[in-house]
Specification:
By secondary structure, the protein is an alpha+beta fold. Helices cover 30% and strands 28% of the residues. Strands 1-3-4-9-8-7-6-5-2 form a nine-stranded antiparallel sheet, sandwiched between helices. Strand 8 and strand 9 form a beta hairpin.
C-alpha cells in the first residue's frame, strides 16, 4: 500500500506528465546553509517587525505559471489542505519535518497558502519514432513534483519556526515515521542537502524513505524571507527527486 504522504505527490507528477505527453505525442506533427554568515541563531533587526500576511495575500505571492514556464502549476486542492492538517510523527521532535513535507505550517502561522509545481518532461522530436515517444513517456514519469507552501507569522514566529526545523533536521537524522490521513511512511535518514542561498536564511535536507520496500529520496528546502517561511518538498515517481532550484528561486523572487 502506497502511503498518503507519498501517493498524492506521485499521482500529481504522473498525471501532469502523462497529460503533457498526450499533447506532445498525440500526432506525428509533434506538438543547508544561511544566505548570510550565521552562527545558527535567528537573525535580529532593529527595524519593526512587518505585519503577518493573510491567506489571500500569500496566495497572491505564490509562484504562478508565468513564473515557471518549464513547469506545470497545480493549485493545492481542499482535500490536500485538509490532509496536511493530519500530519504527525512517532517522534515529537520530528513533527516539524513531517509538517514541512505535508504542506502544513510549522508553529502558529497567521496566514498560509500552497501550490504544486511539476517539471515538464522533455518533448520528443516532431519526427520521433514510436519507440522514442514511448521512452519519452517513461522518462516523463520521473519528473520532479514540488509542493510549495507559504506561511506568514506575527513577531518572531518565522524565525522560531525556522529554528525548530533546523533543530529537527539534526535530531531526526536517524529517521522517524510520518503519518498522514491514516497512513504512514518510514523515513530512514535525514541528511544535509545541497546548500541553498536564498532569502534571509535557508535550510536544505535530503530525506530518504522506505515505501513498501522501495527506497525514495525526497528533497526538502526551507527559506525564510522576513516573517514568511517558504517550504519546498520535492518528490519523483522515479524514486529520486532533484532539488527544485528553479522553483525555489522563482518563489523567493516573488516574496521580494
Amino acid at each position: 500500500m502506497r502511503t498518503a504522504l507519498v501517493r498524492r505527490t506521485v499521482l500529481t507528477a504522473s498525471a501532469v506528465s502523462l497529460s503533457l505527453l498526450v499533447t506532445a505525442c498525440g500526432s506525428d506533427k509533434g506538438g543547508n546553509t544561511d544566505a548570510k554568515p550565521s552562527t545558527g541563531a535567528p537573525a535580529t533587526s532593529a527595524a519593526p517587525a512587518a505585519k503577518a500576511k493573510t491567506d489571500a495575500e500569500l496566495a497572491g505571492l505564490l509562484v504562478a505559471q508565468a513564473d515557471l514556464p518549464e513547469h506545470v502549476i497545480k493549485p493545492a486542492t481542499p482535500a490536500e489542505t485538509a490532509a496536511a492538517g493530519t500530519a504527525t510523527s512517532d517522534k515529537p521532535e520530528c513533527q516539524p519535518l513531517v509538517k514541512a513535507q505535508s504542506m502544513a505550517p510549522v508553529g502558529t502561522a497567521a496566514g498560509k497558502a500552497g501550490t504544486k509545481a511539476v517539471a515538464k518532461p522533455k518533448e520528443p522530436a516532431a519526427n520521433a519514432s514510436a519507440e522514442e515517444k514511448a521512452k519519452a513517456a517513461l522518462a516523463a514519469l520521473g519528473s520532479t513534483a514540488t509542493s510549495v507552501s507559504l506561511a506568514s507569522y506575527e513577531g518572531k514566529g518565522a524565525e522560531e519556526a525556522f529554528a525548530t526545523l533546523k533543530t529537527a533536521g539534526t535530531a531526526c537524522a536517524g529517521g522517524y515515521t510520518g503519518s498522514q490521513d491514516g497512513e504512514s511512511l518510514k523515513i530512514e535518514k535525514v541528511a544535509p542537502g545541497a546548500p541553498v542561498t536564498a532569502g534571509d536564511a535557508a535550510l536544505a535536507y535530503t530525506v530518504v524513505g522506505d515505501s513498501d520496500g522501495t527506497k525514495i529520496t525526497m528533497e526538502l528546502v526551507v527559506v525564510r524571507k522576513g516573517n514568511t517561511l517558504a517550504t519546498f518538498s520535492a518528490l519523483s515517481l522515479a524514486g529520486v527527486a532533484e532539488q527544485p532550484k528553479a522553483v525555489v528561486d522563482a518563489q523567493v523572487k516573488k516574496l521580494g
